[in-house]
Specification:
The structure holds 2 protein chains of 2 kinds. Chain A is α/β, with parallel strands linked by helices. In chain A, about 40% of the residues lie in helices and about 15% in strands. Chain A contains 22 helices and 14 strands. In chain A, the strands form 3 sheets. Chain A has a 5-stranded mixed beta sheet. A 5-stranded mixed beta sheet of chain A has the order 11-10-14-12-13. In chain A, strands 8-7-6-9 form a 4-stranded parallel beta sheet, sandwiched between helices. In chain A, strand 3 and strand 4 form a beta hairpin. In chain A, helix 6 runs parallel beside helix 10. By secondary structure, chain B is of the alpha+beta class. Chain B is elongated and about 50 Å long. In chain B, a hairpin with a 2-residue loop joins strand 3 and strand 4. Chain B has a 4-stranded mixed beta sheet with strand order 2-1-3-4, with helices on one face. Chain B folds into 2 domains: about 60 residues, no CATH class; about 80 residues, Glutaredoxin (3-Layer(aba) Sandwich). Chain B is built from 7 helices and 4 strands. The chains are: A alpha/beta, B alpha+beta. Chains A and B meet through helix 1, strand 10, strand 14 and helix 17 of A and helix 2, helix 4 and helix 5 of B.
Chain lengths: ~550, ~160
């Protein structure tokens, strides 16, 4: 009997679908069958990104989805005898060691997998995130080793050459940030990993930190080296406790292995990392607000310039990158610049993780080359709209983003195309809406969100979002006036142009984009006093 | 100066543990809430004294962040996710049902102090919405009609 590794996804997604019971069933079965003698083990791993199939078990190259504890016992027994349970299998890897899997479709033939290219997520769902040795065996810290052989300026140059852009929202070139910070006068400097993932509908940072925290940490150490920082912070949202615990454990292990601390890998570079928990404020994803929060203050943004690269944490030069941005860094050095730049568009190289949720068959986190069309995302990877419903819109970029209608399905998912269409790439949240959705309600939902998350510092955002919400509530309640849609557009433009930070500047996007593409629906609410989708409570419902 | 006896309090101990860190206030408040369930006025006064931060600034921070509670919560905390994916899958109806069953609004605590109901932001398990969390237990794909059963699991058995 050969030793088998039973991988079970125990990220937040898996656990909420019942992975803990499935894991127990696997362990009990292995114990009962005396599997320890053959060296077979159960390994808790992060999220493979196929949330629709959670709880997910992989053994001997066969993937099983939606596994119940009783299935797990069956699957484990069969696997220990070298057999697959074909009827319950989701797909198989190219290398499959179990018999009876002939009819199981190869994973590489499944659109939800075949269209992906995994870089930031390459080890998520594969390695045991709690084991640094497992991560090292999968290539972890090799990028750091290579980067530390270069001069900091050469590290910056390599990242600049591949054109890595920030994956947290705005798409700012990462190397320019690093360069600014590196060129700031010498002295105390900081490097921060922004893991304050607050976009509802986006969970790629959580999945990344839960599934492969060492990759992110490695990226942060390389960033620290490039910028000349001596201390790093990971600012992770307290609402994502598993991710926070995962990165805390990773930091301790990296310290013990000498990837953090004094004279890292004999390079003379000193760097240490502290994990801080965000206390729940959407605006803290904005870099100056995040800095205020680490300083122990109310998380309010301030005007830029000066940028954090010159005047950041405690007034010192500070570099801030998003989790996913940092997760792309190690491979730029381990696998090389050419490898990284082989995917993506002319202006945006590499891959991006999109979290697809809502009214879609295959929900999950999918890493795809930048520039994939929305149609491929929704209908190939996502498997289309369930329950015989029709696609109505894709909400891209969370509360700062916009809604893309059917006419945008052939749009390329890259920074420029998305913002021209009135949405944003943002963190990569993609909520799919079907024809039972009311677009006025969606706009109202997001505006309620941003209004309550407005920190209150600048007037346009603090007061403007309240005024806009008044109008949109009026429309949704069937009391809208003929001039209301124009009024929303006018206020939206003012808030966009005059707010202090990104939260306010983008807060009107969900309203403006729904007006742009679904104006008729607003018209029916205002003039017809009815909600075509039957969502708004104004009498359209029976 | 002789040490006052109240310095032995949890608030003092936690504050002193973090006193040397820069930006210690938020970690201190987080640990304090973890210990005591919420931020008691007397504990905040203690933190103020220990960390030499004005009480007004501490209240400023405590009221800014959604995580901090200034009132004692119920024995069980029910959190209904109101994130986008949960919203489009009907979390509003789920919330309304819990409000009806418990006879309170989101943000309130039942009179018998058994339940606090909260409408919260995303937990990041969006693919399986609507998600609700009761204490540390997560329920996924919650449909209207399940509220009563879930509440019953946590009510005292008579």
């Amino acid at each position: 009997m050969t030793a088998l590794v039973f991988r079970i996804g125990v990220g937040t997604c898996g656990l909420s679908a019942g992975a803990a019971e499935v894991r127990r069933a696997l362990e009990e079965t292995l114990a009962a069958e005396g599997a320890a003698k053959s060296g077979s083990t159960v390994k808790g791993v992060g999220c493979l990104g196929l949330c629709f199939a959670e709880p997910l078990v992989e053994v001997g190259g066969v993937l099983y989805g939606r596994v119940k504890p009783e299935d797990a016992r069956l699957i484990a027994k069969a696997a220990l005898e070298g057999e697959a349970v074909a009827a319950k299998a989701l797909a198989k890897r190219d290398k499959c060691v179990l018999k009876g899997a002939e009819k199981v479709p190869p994973l590489s033939s499944q659109p939800f997998w075949a269209l992906q290219f995994r870089d930031a997520f390459e080890n998520c769902g594969v390695v045991d995130p709690k084991s640094i040795d497992d991560c090292i065996a999968a290539g972890g810290y090799e990028g750091l080793r290579k980067a530390l052989k270069l001069k900091p300026a050469e590290v910056v140059a390599q990242v600049k050459a591949v054109g890595l852009r920030g994956r947290g929202g705005a798409g700012f070139p990462t190397a320019i940030k690093w360069e600014l910070c590196a060129k700031a006068p010498a002295g105390e400097k900081f490097a921060i990993c922004n893991a304050d993932e607050g976009d509802p509908g986006a969970f790629m940072n959580r999945a990344n930190l839960e599934g492969d925290p060492h990759k992110v940490l490695e990226g942060l150490i390389i960033a620290g080296y490039a910028c000349g920082a001596g201390k790093g912070f990971v600012y992770v949202r307290a609402e994502k406790p598993l991710a926070a615990q995962s990165v805390k454990t990773a930091v301790e292990q990296a310290q013990a292995k000498g990837f953090l601390g004094k004279n890292i890998l004999g390079s003379g570079f000193d760097f240490d990392v502290e994990v801080r928990l965000g206390a729940g404020a959407f605006v803290c994803g904005e870099e100056t607000a995040l800095i205020a929060s680490i300083e122990g203050k109310r998380g309010m943004p301030r005007a830029r310039p000066p940028y954090p690269a010159e005047h950041g944490l405690w007034g010192k030069p500070t570099n801030i990158n998003n989790v996913e941005t940092l997760a792309h860094v190690p491979n730029i050095f381990r696998r090389g610049a050419e490898w990284f730049a082989a995917r993506g568009t002319a202006k945006s190289k590499g891959t991006k993780v999109f979290c697809m949720t809502g009214k879609i068959s295959n929900t999950g986190a999918f890493e795809v080359p930048i520039g994939i069309t929305l149609r491929d995302m929704v209908f190939k990877i996502g498997g289309g709209i369930p329950d015989g419903r029709k696609f109505k819109a894709a909400q891209s970029g969370g509360p700062s983003g916009g809604c893309l209608p059917e006419s945008c399905l052939d749009l390329q998912m890259d920074y420029e195309s998305l913002s021209e269409a009135g949405a944003i790439m943002g963190s990569g949240g993609l909520v799919i809406l079907d024809d039972s959705t009311c677009m006025v309600d969606v706009a109202r939902y997001f505006l309620t969100f941003t209004q309550s998350e407005s920190c209150g510092l600048c007037t346009p955002c603090r007061e403007g979002t309240v005024r806009m919400l008044d109008v949109i509530n009026r429309i949704a309640d069937g009391k809208g006036k003929a001039s209301d849609v124009e009024e929303l557009q006018r206020m939206g433009r003012i808030i966009r142009d005059t707010s202090l930070c990104g939260l306010g500047q983008t807060a009107p996007n969900p309203v403006l984009s729904t007006i742009r593409y679904f104006r008729a629906e607003y018209g029916e609410h205002v003039k017809g006093k009815k909600c075509p989708a039957g969502v708004c409570r104004m009498g359209a419902k029976k | 100066m002789p040490e006052k006896p109240k310095l032995a309090s949890k608030a003092a101990a936690i504050s002193r543990k973090h006193a040397a860190e820069r930006g210690a206030l938020i970690p201190v408040l987080q640990e304090l809430q973890e210990e005591e369930g919420y931020l008691k006025p007397e504990s905040l006064a203690e933190v103020s004294e220990q960390l030499k931060i004005p009480l007004s600034s501490i209240y400023g921070v405590a009221t800014f962040y959604a995580q901090f509670r200034l009132e004692q919560p119920g024995k069980n905390i029910i959190q209904i996710c109101s994130g986008t994916a949960c919203h489009v899958k009907g979390s509003k109806k789920v919330l309304e049902e819990f409000e009806k069953e418990l006879g309170i609004k989101a943000g309130e605590t039942t009179q018998d102090k058994k339940f606090t109901l909260l409408s919260v932001r995303c937990f990041g398990a969006c693919a399986l919405g609507p998600i609700i969390k009761v204490n540390d237990d997560i329920y996924s794909s919650v449909a209207a009609g399940q509220a009563k059963g879930i509440i019953a699991k946590y009510g005292d058995k008579k």
